[in-house]
Amino acid sequence: MTEEYDVEFVEREDREARILVRGVTPAFANGIRRAMLADVPTMAVDTVRFVENSSVMFDEQLALRLGLVPLTTPPEGEFAEDDTVTLSIDVEGPATAYSGDLVSSDDLVQPADENVPIIELKDDQRLEAEADAVLDRGKDHAKHQGGVAVGYRHLQRVEVVGDLPEFEEPESRIIRGVIEDDGELVPTSEFDHDLSNRYPGKEVEIEDVPNAFVFHVETDGSFPVEELVTRAADSIERRATELEEAVQL
């Protein structure tokens, strides 16, 4: 019997979103979180060949910086995990070398942001290099984590149970995440995370909504939030299928 669950966007942008998922267990919620961080492959620079580096930084330091530049990741099936894409950079000072100065051999793999600083070059300094980007997973190296901030909290239901007793001073009641108030989903940032701001003079009760979790997902630009979540779910499905087939052998 297949479990039914509901998914709803509370807040939605290209790289950041809050997503409410109902009908899942804490174990499944944590599995999705781990899959977004560790199992979804992204492109990142793996090796660098320096033609000239007369900057104040060692080759190894610059290679590390290049490896941490987020790159757009093509749709599934476009690249295998042993394929490479070459990016080149050639900047002469006085100037700052940015991620946008990287020139890719493939239009599908580009710097996700153009304004990531790599090195400031003074007069007569130059950075010229070639880099190979590969497809790999966050469980092998953090530079391949497409989710830079992934977490979840219980959805919490708030109910007004009455007025505060007369002459009782209201106290701050801090809560973070998303609340459900009479069916309405409200991010706590809308009332500065303090329930006394939303319900002045009222006494309220809070309870966790069973098997309902709000995910906060932010990507590095490798791909949109929806794709990161979808690929994570697909990876769990594949592993579950592999386990099922192995058990039936």
From TrEMBL:
<comment type="subunit">
    <text>Part of the RNA polymerase complex.</text>
</comment>
<dbReference type="GO" id="GO:0005737">
    <property type="term" value="C:cytoplasm"/>
</dbReference>
<dbReference type="InterPro" id="IPR022842">
    <property type="entry name" value="RNAP_Rpo3/Rpb3/RPAC1"/>
</dbReference>
<dbReference type="InterPro" id="IPR050518">
    <property type="entry name" value="Rpo3/RPB3_RNA_Pol_subunit"/>
</dbReference>
<dbReference type="Pfam" id="PF01000">
    <property type="entry name" value="RNA_pol_A_bac"/>
</dbReference>
<dbReference type="InterPro" id="IPR036603">
    <property type="entry name" value="RBP11-like"/>
</dbReference>
<dbReference type="GO" id="GO:0000428">
    <property type="term" value="C:DNA-directed RNA polymerase complex"/>
</dbReference>
<dbReference type="Pfam" id="PF01193">
    <property type="entry name" value="RNA_pol_L"/>
</dbReference>
<dbReference type="GO" id="GO:0003677">
    <property type="term" value="F:DNA binding"/>
</dbReference>
<feature type="domain" description="DNA-directed RNA polymerase RpoA/D/Rpb3-type">
    <location>
        <begin position="16"/>
        <end position="246"/>
    </location>
</feature>
<keyword id="KW-0548">Nucleotidyltransferase</keyword>
<keyword id="KW-0808">Transferase</keyword>
<comment type="function">
    <text>DNA-dependent RNA polymerase (RNAP) catalyzes the transcription of DNA into RNA using the four ribonucleoside triphosphates as substrates.</text>
</comment>
<dbReference type="InterPro" id="IPR036643">
    <property type="entry name" value="RNApol_insert_sf"/>
</dbReference>
<comment type="similarity">
    <text>Belongs to the archaeal Rpo3/eukaryotic RPB3 RNA polymerase subunit family.</text>
</comment>
<keyword id="KW-0963">Cytoplasm</keyword>
<dbReference type="InterPro" id="IPR011263">
    <property type="entry name" value="DNA-dir_RNA_pol_RpoA/D/Rpb3"/>
</dbReference>
<dbReference type="GO" id="GO:0046983">
    <property type="term" value="F:protein dimerization activity"/>
</dbReference>
<dbReference type="InterPro" id="IPR011262">
    <property type="entry name" value="DNA-dir_RNA_pol_insert"/>
</dbReference>
<dbReference type="GO" id="GO:0003899">
    <property type="term" value="F:DNA-directed RNA polymerase activity"/>
</dbReference>
<dbReference type="GO" id="GO:0006351">
    <property type="term" value="P:DNA-templated transcription"/>
</dbReference>
<keyword id="KW-0240">DNA-directed RNA polymerase</keyword>
<protein>
    <recommendedName>
        <fullName>DNA-directed RNA polymerase subunit Rpo3</fullName>
        <ecNumber>2.7.7.6</ecNumber>
    </recommendedName>
</protein>
<keyword id="KW-0804">Transcription</keyword>
<dbReference type="InterPro" id="IPR001514">
    <property type="entry name" value="DNA-dir_RNA_pol_30-40kDasu_CS"/>
</dbReference>
